Amino acid sequence: MTSETDTAAAGPAFTVDELAARAGVTVRTVRFYGTRGLLPPPRIGPRRVGQYGEDHLGRLALIEDLQRQGMTLAAIERYVGRLPEGTTAHELAVHRAVVASWLPDGTSECSRAEAEEQVGRKLTEDDLCRLEAMGVLTPLPPDSAGAGADARRYALDTGLVRLGVRLLDLPLSLEAIRSARSLLLEHAARAAHELATLFKDEVGEAPAGEARSLSAHMQPIVLQALLTAFQRSLSAELRGALGEAGDGGRETGRRGTAG
Length: 259
What we know:
2 domains, two-stranded antiparallel sheet, 5 strands
């Protein structure tokens, strides 16, 4: 069992209420994250009261940043699950500094009319469903959205608006859009985690400000490298898939003619 001396040596100790207040979340959220393995269990202090530390605060901040990236809870669980056991508050701060510089432009709350102004066209119900599947528009809870379809409020991802407009007119099903987004987020999260780990090892004990500066300079380089590699891989996969489909179609046609 952890002693009071060990707890003191580990840094400030917070009750679950104090941790929730400092992190800007609810106690219920803290406990929920604990049951999902996103937070390590608290240290047991005097009178068997759970005590949380700076490492728990760091994890909560990292989870918030990952949510702002649009990652699902399942993807965040995989991301956080790859963190080494015993990751310190300082390491989490460096890790978060790297993640923070890769955050999208952000989100803004808007009405349907304001979303149409941003998108540049009238939006049908089907358009709204497709934009939601893409992660461009996220309906806000009913208690803050008001009553009636025209009064609904949305969170608009400003970094995805242009992409969303281009995808609206493509003949893709909702299921295909959802599956594609899930695949992209999962693989992007894995690549981001491995790159963040690489950068963390490089900066070592550097202050978070220096880590953020290094990441900001590396971001355009890495993004271009990832884009180029992905474009080449996707082109090769599409050539192979379409080539096989074309060959199959030609072969079928030849057999039909022969018959």
